[in-house]
Amino acid sequence: QVQLVVSGGGLVQAGGSLRLSCAASGSIFSVNAMGWYRQAPGKQRELVAVITSGGYTNYADSVKGRFTISRDNAKNTVYLQMNSLKPEDTAVYYCNAEVKAKFYVPLSDYWGQGTQVTVSS
Questions:
Q1: Strand 91-100 vs strand 2-7: parallel, antiparallel, or unpaired?
Q2: Cβ(102)–Cβ(2) below 8 Å
Q3: What share of the chain is helix, strand, coil (3-state, %, to 5)?
């Protein structure tokens, strides 16, 4: 079993900052890409940022220059530093990880619990 535990989130004023963390634990052989997604009310879940085990990153255009994704491979943890937050960043944020539980099984997708980020104007 693999668990992703998310921490961070909350209420912040526009222009403020928040940091999200997501730690993977359990039966883990290796972790490939880790990422953050978000879902606003009435909208589909969308990719915010993703980072590979080698450190390659990709961001949604809407967060480029404001959000930074990073990871600690030794801790199987991914972070999302969110600066210059805008009301339109308000959403439930989800962590995702591609995990190989055993060397002989394929990669599987795992999701953490969502965390609410609310940006007030």
A1: unpaired
A2: no
A3: 5, 60, 35
Please give the Cα distance from 95 to 21 (Å, whole number): 9
Residues 6+ apart with CB under 8 A from 14: 85, 86, 87, 119, 120, 121
From first to last of the 121 residues of the chain, give the pLDDT tens digit. 899 999 999 999 999 999 999 999 999 999 999 999 999 999 999 999 999 999 999 999 999 999 999 999 999 999 999 999 999 999 999 999 999 999 999 999 999 999 999 999 9
Buried b or exposed e, range 82-104, using 16+ CB within 10 angstroms: beebeeebbbbbbbbbbbbbeee
CA–CA separation, 118 and 121 (whole Å): 10
Placement of tokens 């990153």 in the chain: 57
